[in-house]
């Protein structure tokens, strides 16, 4: 007879994007190696308790079982959260007699965890915690999985449909009113609805899009922190938690594009205008941090900015959705600025450490953070570069970014088009691209012509816009520029060539005097790149900048290869500036594991289990020295 083993497990399906949510507690008893039973209890967030029984069978060290939970009665106050946990599967394996590894899967979530037994011998007890999979991330992962497998593996796609169908069945007009505290479901539902319509047709994804709009319109009666203080279409000022806000505005832009509702369009444009022209950092970041991780008052942009990396990701999403809705290049100008500065600079050059916040003086990159959302969001956003680079509509395609590589854009005027770019932009402004339609077709290629005046907050001299030259198959042309795009309509054949040269000049940027932190100061920019000065290149950076010309110079051996700006300080000493994204890579400061504390939470939101670890951190430097800064004394 094998030893009697007890495993007390907590399966936490807690996720911020889940309405079908509850906590499942079970006690498993295995007698011998082949049979066992389980008693399960579910407690929802309102304290309602439900119970169920199950049976397990298996081989030594491995078991599979099913449980059935009786929901008992209708629970309108809990939005029927328990309904998604009616049936599920549990899989666990014993590691010797000292530990247990478990995986729990149900229609509301998925998690995995491990723990070391507290005792050994003939009886042991383990407490296991599970991680959580946010449901919006699961749905978007299903879309990516379908795409990467060319639609040959439908398992995640079908699972995502079941999950979305659960929401549609339980939430909506005449059903349950609910909204997500951290707005991510809405974007995922719109994207999934569009994807299902592309895959299956017949409007089969429309219900998911309608649910996203319902969730947006259910926001009310709350606070500015999560943008629930006013009905959605009555919000005109960017307030509250910056990450939640830009996700929220991104979903609003989705709905505005889907249904053309003038109230949505008016609100979205007003929010965009307030954020970009009153609350936007020159580096493309948002969120001063004067409220909780959020926006401050108009024109309040202190240099110790919060500018959370996730808010940069969300701002890219928002600008991209605005570009989709209105086909105006100014939105791509803005997300290019955020990508090259605030977002690209959120990791070190080796990609091993990251910033949670992105101030304009100094910064700290660490290996981890107690709230590790940025760890995955930064690479997720950077890896979507092909999405940000090309956009299509019924009449053609749009080239939004200048990045070397090959991308196939499907469904352009009835054919697939592979776009191949060759460029070292923003080192220089020379860009070559070849167009490769599967069959010759007439359509429009819209090439973005950058306008560096992205925000009314900033004025740059000299002004830089337009193009220096534009050729199609070697022939000099002057295409019409409409909404920031050079438009070339013709019958495109395989191998047709576009060559253009964009102006690249060093600009001095001054700021609206209502921004107190920037009065009497200037920033430097070259192309889309904003620059910092650092003590690694000069002994003092608190001096006035001189009036001599500033030149751009490529330095192959510096910081992996960068374009530096070289000029003079007002006292005649040499001045060197490096791109903002490359800042704080030469300070020789000790890299801490996590900022601001010795206890790291590896699973924020998980229920139970050993999810924290004490880490011995080096002391924070006390000299308050400025090693790197964006704004210089004029």
Q: What is the compact description of this entry?
A:
This protein is an alpha+beta fold and 634 residues long.
Structure, described:
By secondary structure, the chain is α+β, with helices and mostly antiparallel strands. It is 22% helix and 30% strand. The strands form 5 sheets. The protein has a 9-stranded mixed sheet with strand order 8-7-6-5-4-3-2-1-9, with no helix packed on it. Strands 16, 22, 23, 24, 25, 26, 27, 30 and 31 form a 9-stranded antiparallel sheet that branches. Helix 1 packs antiparallel against helix 2, helix 5 runs parallel beside helix 7 (309-326) and helix 7 (309-326) runs antiparallel to helix 8. The protein is globular. It starts with a strand and ends with a strand. Mean pLDDT is 80; it is low at 1-133 and 598-620.
